Structures are given as C-alpha cells and as structure tokens.
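Running log. JK asked me to keep both predictions on one page so they can be read side by side. First protein, sequence followed by its tokens:
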Amino acid sequence: MSMVKESIDVDVPLHTAYNQWTQFEEFPKFMAGVREVRQLDDRRTHWRTSIAGAEREFDAEIVDQRPDERVAWRTVDGDVRQMGLVTFQPIDADRTKVSLAMNFQPEGITEQAGDLLGVLDRRVKGDLARFKDFIEGRGRETGGWRGRITPA
C-alpha cells in the first residue's frame, strides 16, 4: 500500500471545518475526480470516482468519528482499497489545521505509474486547497453531523 499525508490551515473555526467535512455528499464540489458520494447510513458511504480515466465505485465505512477531532474510514466493497484519517486541530479561535493521511492500493498499470509519479499526493493537496476555498468562501458549513462512531 502507498501512503499520502497532507495538511492545510483553514481560516474558519474548528467546528465549522469539522462540520463541513462530515457532509460527504458535498465532496464532489471540492474533490477532483469524485463524481458522487451517497450517504447510505451513519457509517457507510457509496462513492463514484473517475481518476485518470479509471471509473471506480466503492463503499466506505467510517470506523472512528469523534466530533471536532477526527474521521477515520476504510473501503469495504468495490474497486478501491484504501483507508484514511482526517484530523482537525484548532490553531486559534478562527483557524483550524486539517490533516489528511491515506493508505491506498493502486490498481492496474496506470494507477501504479501515477502513484510513482506522485499524482495522488498532488491530487490530495489540491483537494485540501479546494476544501479551504470552499469553506472559507462560504464562511459557514453546509451542515454537520455531530454523532460519535467508535471502532467495532
């Protein structure tokens, strides 16, 4: 598996950044290649992506979610094998550090070559920059889910 880690500081309060991140169906608005995310229930989401011409569908399960702290997930079904963690740390009352770490298994020659060339690293960095623009441009979250999910 390969790993990517990126962080960004956003100029919104901690709860605003966290609440927005829990709105998974909004991800296509700032994540390149994400075509659709459907929230199936509190724990599960269904994703449709198109990255470097490769169409993928998969389900992901949230395995640990702590309000204003973290969201951890893993894929459970479909074309993609990955797991990740996004964490939120207050910088001050109006700014938050958002850090994302993802492990993934590149499938096929195209994805393996892209991994070697750092394509996913750049994609994640760009997605975080677009998240920053999205949430700062709005100044408030589109919604939020404050529930707690604990590892099984």
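And the second, directly underneath as requested:
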Amino acid sequence: MRVLVVDTALGLCTAGVFEVEEAVVRRLGLKSEPMAKGHSERLAGFARDAMAEAGLAFEAIDRIGVTAGPGSFTGLRVGLAFAQGLGAALDRPVVGVSSLDALAASGGGGAAAALIDARRGQVYARFWTNGLARGAAEALSLEAASARIADLPPGAMLIGSGAALFAEAFPGLTQAPLAGPAPEALARLAAAADPATSPPRPLYLRAPDAAPPTRLPGQARPARP
C-alpha cells in the first residue's frame, strides 16, 4: 500500500510517501522541517516535493494518513483540511491518526509515556505497557502526569515535546523529546487503520485558548449595573 502521510499537529511540517507491506515500511519521498507556524503556506509544496522525490503522481497513492491531534488547534485544521481536500480530489480514503499514538510508535513499542507539552501546567498524555495502551488520551496536570509516570516500569520511555518537563524527576527513564512523530511510524499506523473507525476528525482534549467575542463589531458595550 502506498501511503501519503501529513503531519502539522505539533512542531513539524511533514509530508511523506511510503510503501507499507505488513510490518515493512519503505520511504519513497519525504519533506519534513521543524515549524511552529506557517504550515498552511508550506504544506502543499512539501507534498509536491515528496511526491516528486518518490517519482510518483498523486494518483498513485492508495491512502492518506493525517495526524488528528491532540496538538495545535491551527496546525490540526491545516493538516486535516489539506488531507481531506486531497482525498476528495483523488477519491482516496483518508484516515486520522492520534498524535500520541504516533509518538509512542516512534519509540518502537514497549513501556512508554507519550507526552505533548500543552502549556498552562498541563500535558497531553497516553501511557503504554508492553505496547498496549493503558487508557485513553488525557489532558493531565504535571502533578497527575508525574504520578502516572512513576508507575511505569524501569526502562520505560518518555517521548514527545512534554518529555523534557519530567527529565529531572525521572532521570532513570529514557528521554525522547521529539518535536513530532516519526513519519515511518505515522505511515505504519495509517496503513493499519480502518477508515470506518479512524475518521480524519480533530481530537481536542482541551477547549481553545481563544474565547469568542462577547459583542459584535460596532455593538455598544452592555451597561454596567
């Protein structure tokens, strides 16, 4: 299966083309750079460059996989809109992949905590033992996350942008402060996903920081009591 993967959810802008056959993932073309903003201006060009490196037309793609969150509100929208638009144009299935699941898969399985720095004293987190998830993705305070990390077995891996927040508290655990998931891990999960149960729908674990306006432009302020 030829899979085009798109990731703009965290600290990377990634578009990659992979051939996935069972457990074997072969890179055909990849464009990926660290990026905090500006994904919307660069993503289409990244996808074009990845396809050119692979020597393929977009019609050769069998499936599109996109990180669905948690992550940046704006970044998620950019990646999901691009993937769904391309999927509709090509008549190809589009699957959403959890950013936390893709981070954990980037570490090779085993005991792990996938951690994304959510700011405001929180992390987005999901925990694994022996490659099996222990519960759903959550938004946790740093204190609650520390308690969960303390239950992990020796040799467990802390992976993702939130790993550095716990480096001093857990020096015996492997630290992998990745800015985003490995494209190969994302391709493997996208190829294995069932389109019927993995829709390209954003996963938000916290309400947006921006609040809607309380009045329309030009509308008078409400009188104070």
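Observation for JK regarding the second prediction: The radius of gyration is 19 Å.
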